[in-house]
Specification:
The protein is α+β, with helices and mostly antiparallel strands. It contains 11 helices and 13 strands. The protein has a 7-stranded mixed sheet with strand order 1-2-3-4-7-6-5, sandwiched between helices. Strands 8-9-10-11-13-12 form a 6-stranded antiparallel sheet.
């Protein structure tokens, strides 16, 4: 049965993230046991020792960055920033401006649904690369400048960890409170249909999505001219809309190439709707040696490669240029494909 708070989820018109983050902040503010649980987890993973941290919400910084929860030590220094995420993308300030406001020996935590961890990690990494921020990564942990850590943790893990510490110390009222937050997060995680907002019904949404379909066709037209992409034996595989999006099939340099507008990948894997799969034959698994080659190419050229579990194919994620006119976007996507094909 959903928690009492979860029962009211359909009636909430504001940000679900705000409700979850303020609930977590309340528990941390109310219990040293809860704070010690979180601090102990962070210390174990970073070897940074924290004294008792006080937590506040919506602490605005110099560049108008506004993290959900800010942790301050006894000397008044910000040591921990917690940003809660469900399915929204990172803002312009995340994570770079948040890192800029932190000094050495600090932690930036992103809490998100388990299914969001992979794509959020990828999104954070892309932001770091774009801003020329040096970093090292290890599973869900990112180390920046050898002094600042970024953690990506799922809601269930962090809430269950704090809950267990509260149970062990007999803080029954807060156990009930955190159960409310857990139930609320479960409702959000399982709410496949996201409630519509006024802006979702704007004709601009339909226009934008429709333009993505046209964009793939225009990318193929450009490749047809520049590197002799053709339908060839793929003629029987007509470009078509499908439940997951849209596919354009073609032959490039004897390779079977599928350009895709992939909504499930966009939702769960990486923040781009545009993907490309390359194979040696149609409707066959990619040979092991060919998959290994694709992985090496991905590392060499810096275009991320992901596996589609439904058909066991490896896909390159094509990231479009932002804030550019159509001609520039088409040229850039075409160039990404040409770079890949030139390595084969």
């Amino acid at each position: 049965m959903p928690s009492l708070l979860g029962q009211f989820f359909p009636l909430i018109r504001g940000s679900q993230e705000d409700i979850a983050s303020k609930g977590l902040a309340y528990v941390l503010q109310s219990s040293k046991i809860a704070r010690d649980s979180l601090n102990g987890f962070l210390s174990t993973n970073t070897e940074i020792l924290f004294d008792d941290i006080s937590y506040a919400t919506q602490s605005v910084g110099e560049n108008d960055e506004r993290p959900d929860i800010s942790g301050i030590d006894s000397n008044g220094k910000e040591k921990i920033i917690i940003e809660t995420k469900f399915w929204s993308s990172l803002t312009n300030n995340q994570p770079v401006e948040y890192l800029n406001r932190l000094n050495e020996q600090t932690v930036l935590i992103f809490i998100c649904p388990k299914l969001r961890e992979f794509s959020l990690f990828d999104e954070i990494e892309t932001k770091l690369i774009t801003s020329n921020t040096s970093y090292k990564k290890n599973n869900e942990l990112i180390l920046v400048d050898n002094e600042k850590y970024i953690f990506i943790i799922d809601w269930n893990y962090i809430l269950d960890m704090i809950k267990q510490s509260l149970i062990e110390n007999n803080e029954k009222i807060l156990v009930s409170d955190i159960d409310q937050i857990i139930g609320f997060c479960e409702i959000i995680d399982n709410n496949i249909f996201l409630p519509m907002q006024d802006e979702d019904l704007s004709p601009n949404i339909a226009r934008r999505i429709y333009s993505y379909y046209n964009l793939l066709d225009k990318v193929f037209d450009k490749l047809k001219i520049e590197i002799n992409a053709n339908k060839g034996d793929s003629g029987r595989l007509q470009s078509r809309g499908q439940r997951f999006g849209y596919s354009v099939y073609c032959i490039i340099n004897t390779y079977c190439v599928t350009l895709e507008l992939q909504f499930p990948f966009w939702q769960k894997i990486a923040d781009t709707p545009f993907w490309i799969a390359i194979n040696t034959e149609w409707n066959k698994p990619q040979p092991t040696d060919f998959r290994d080659k694709l992985k090496k190419i991905s590392i060499k050229i810096g275009i991320n490669l992901y596996e589609n579990d439904s058909n066991d194919l490896l896909y390159f994620a094509l990231r479009p240029k932002l804030n550019e006119v159509e001609e520039v976007v088409i040229k850039d996507l075409s160039n990404q494909i040409k770079i890949i094909m030139n390595e084969l």
